[in-house]
Write a structure and sequence with these properties.
Elements lengths: L27 E5 L6 E4 H10 L3 E6 L6 E5 L1 H18 L5 E6 L5 H17 L2 E7 L8 H14 L4 E10 L2 E8 L3
Parallel strand pairs: 1-4, 5-6
Antiparallel strand pairs: 1-2, 3-4, 6-8, 7-8
Amino acid sequence: MRKNTRKPFIKREEVDQHRINEKILSREIRLVTEGGEPQVISTAEAIQLAEEQDMDLVEISPNAVPPVCKIMDYRKFLYNQKRKQKELKAKQSKIVLKEIRFGPNTDEHDFLFKLAHARKFLEEGSKVKAYVFFRGRTIVFKDRGEILLLKFAQELAEIGAVEQLPKLEGKRMIIMINPKKK
């Protein structure tokens, strides 16, 4: 009979990023107040001052000697921090890569159709990766594929900038086009 060797699942508690009130371990701290000079006082005095103001004593810089603390509303501080992080995340732009595939013998109508799609992708702010796929013996038409991709890049020159010129990788000849900044 096999013994159960799995460890029991332990629920992780949310660990505070800062030490507050009684969790501050040092005897003396440097108390920073708004508009006032920093002063070195005992932790007990600082906690008492914070309680009188219905606030929390928060350790801001634990590595300093003595540690730097500030009296503030800790929950409000955490709320503002989360809100700032959310705003930063919303401002980040996600780069989307769209692919367009051609054959070495792509007809003019198909080329124009795919060109219209690429134009729309670039206007939306997406990157475009266009490639010519050489199937079987069509690899002998490398020059046709390169001409096709260069013509494609030239047509999109006013709204897109070429990041990478046509380059053969295996059975594909690839070109990368970035949208131009508005």
